[in-house]
Every structure is written in structure tokens, then in C-alpha cells.
Amino acid sequence: MIDQGHRSGEAHWPTPEEKKSKTQASQTLLRGLDIIDAVANGIDDLSEIAKVTGMTYSTAHRILSALQQRHYIRREPDQGYRLGHALLGLGYQAQAQIDLVKLAKPLLVELARQTSDTVHLGMPSQDSIVYLEKISSRRPVEISSRVGGNKPLFSTGIGKALLLDQTEEQWLALYDRSPANLQAICDRDKWLQMMRHYAQGGYAFDLGEDESTIRCVAAPIRDGRSHIVAAASVSSTVEYMPPGRMQQLVATVQETALKISTALGYRAV
Prior knowledge:
- Mean pLDDT is 84; it is low at 1-11.
- The protein has a six-stranded antiparallel sheet. The chain has a two-stranded antiparallel sheet with strand order 1-2.
- It has two domains: 16-92, Winged helix-like DNA-binding domain superfamily/Winged helix DNA-binding domain (Arc Repressor Mutant, subunit A, Orthogonal Bundle), CATH 1.10.10; 98-263, 2-Layer Sandwich (Beta-Lactamase).
- It starts with 15 loop residues before the first helix and ends in a 6-residue tail after the last helix.
- A hairpin with a 3-residue loop joins strand 1 and strand 2 (80-83).
- It has 269 residues and is of the alpha+beta class.
- Helix 1 packs across helix 2, helix 1 (16-40) packs across helix 3 and helix 5 runs antiparallel to helix 10 (243-263).
- The protein has ten helices and eight strands.
């Protein structure tokens, strides 16, 4: 039996009551998002949340209660309202769904155009770096790296950039696990002093520790939690990378790394 008011194949036009219900649902959703934004911006008191969102005290309390039930908001006795673990989980999930290479590639291509050098994107894998992308140089230079290939963290520019947030104990432990060829070039104390300098400046160099003829300038890429998750670099042979040019490239590489970090949700403080 077919409902005479809604025959099969006919468009269903919402009634005034249905329109009102949908409008109220949309308003409630938007108000909930306004509250989440307010809490994310450090507003932790119910009265203040109601004030900045333009809601009545009772409406704000009702929506906050619903958000707490779904763990989007939590309330700490001494600290007021805070973002809940459900939002944290969604944030990690959204982060995981971002294709880093796809996001970064246009910026890497532009960096390669600006510098005419080989540009890399890499991420850590235990004591190694894995190359995710490589934009080849326009110069007659060949860098012995490949997408999917590995190089040591301790001797490459990208690798050192990935280590900048680690402790000195972690740096030295990595050095002690490293092959003897680096130790012949750079002793333990010198390497530690070098890493301290790089950590202060937010960049890293490869001064021939990996390949004697190659020089590299690298900078870390951070995610929305401010964690270093990858690094970008510019590399060439020593003839194209005198010390003065390497120093000039620091700001250029850092700018590209920051743009990629910002796209990943990073906000500089």
C-alpha cells in the first residue's frame, strides 16, 4: 500500500515541521563546533564559553554535556573544560590520511627550481632515513639516492634534521651504534657539539660525512603535535655548495619545511 501523500517516484517536499527540525539540528551542530573552538582556544569556564559563543548559559551547558558524553570535551576539576580524547583520536586519524608526499611535492619542486639542486624528502626508520621523494638537480650532478632507499641518520643532512628534538643521550647512543667510518671523520665530542649547534639553529648540514663529495642543507618538518615527522633537504656536490652558499640556503630550506609543516597542522609558537 502506497502512502497517498508520498507516492513512489514522487519528490518528497519537507513539511514546515521537518524544515524546523533540520534547522534546529544544524544550529545545534554549529553551536557544538563553536564550543569546541572556544575550548581549543583556552576558554575553560562555562560562563565565559556561553559569552564568547553568544549562547545562553543553559544552552551552552546542555551542548557541553552532550559533548562530554561523546568524549569530545572533558572537564577537569581544577582546570575547567578541555578537549577530549575523541578529538585527539580524530586528529591522529586525519593526520594519517594526509598523503605527505602529495602534499609536499609542489613545494619541493619549487625549492628545486629556486636552487637548481637535488631536493629530498625523507622520514625516519629506526637508525636510517627512508627517502620518500627526490627531485633531481638541473645541474650535471648525480646524487646516489633513490626513492625508497635508505641512508644512515647520523651521517646525512636529513638524518640529522630528524634528530634535532632528541636528547644528547639519544644522540650519543646513536653515534655509538654507528659504523666506524664516521668516527674516523668526526669524533664523538665533535659530533655532539655539531648536533647542539644544529638543534639551536633548527637545521642540519651534511659536510661530507656520508659521501665526501656531497654537501647538504636540511630542515625538519613537524606535524600538528609539533613532532618532527620528516625532513626536507637541498643537496649537491661540493663545487656547488661552498660554505657561504650552504649558510644562505638554510633560510630557504627552512621556509619550505615550515610550509609543509603548516599544511600538516603545525602552528609555530
